[in-house]
Design a protein that fits this description.
This protein has 142 residues and is an alpha+beta fold. It contains three helices and eight strands, in the order αββαββββαββ. A four-stranded antiparallel sheet has the order 6-5-7-8, with no helix packed on it. A two-stranded antiparallel ribbon has the order 1-4. The protein is globular and about 45 Å long. The N and C termini lie far apart (50 Å).
Length: 142
């Protein structure tokens, strides 16, 4: 049994939205900037209904993200290294080689399924991922 087989049989997946928050002006960013900027990661939000990975084909899963009901981004699991499972297996193997293996309960964001969208003022984003459901993020004026 391969690592990917074990992952598929035991892992739960949920839809997720990553809120990107780069501290690099105008995205004039190099790989060193990316590392120093924590990969431009700001926050994330997760869907509420976990699904066993073995019960959904995340590589073929279509994603649609809307703002106020209007589609602003779309894609599929294939946008993430051909399949999000590939990204997670790469991460697991790399961490094992470094002596810091993944542990039960670790939360992993595998990568984007579609293009990033800017937030402009108060808005409600909703992403639907085939087989996984929906996840929402609402932005308000502070």
């Amino acid at each position: 049994m391969t690592g990917a087989d074990i992952l598929r049989s035991t892992a739960f997946v949920v839809p997720a939205l990553e809120i990107v928050a780069s501290r690099i002006t105008n995205w004039d960013i190099t790989i060193l900037d990316t590392v120093a900027d924590n990969a431009s990661s700001g926050l994330f939000t997760l869907g509420l209904k976990p699904v066993l990975l073995k019960d959904v084909d995340v590589g073929a899963a279509a994603m649609s993200m809307t703002v106020g009901g209007e589609e602003v981004s779309s894609g599929s699991g294939r946008a993430c290294m051909g399949n999000p499972v590939n990204a997670v297996v790469w991460l697991a193997n790399t961490l094992c080689e470094l002596g810091k293996p993944l542990r039960a309960g670790d939360l992993i964001l595998s990568g984007a399924l579609g293009p990033m969208v800017n937030v402009a003022g108060p808005s409600r984003f909703e992403a639907s991922i085939e087989g996984l459901g929906t996840v929402r993020a609402e932005f308000v004026d502070a």
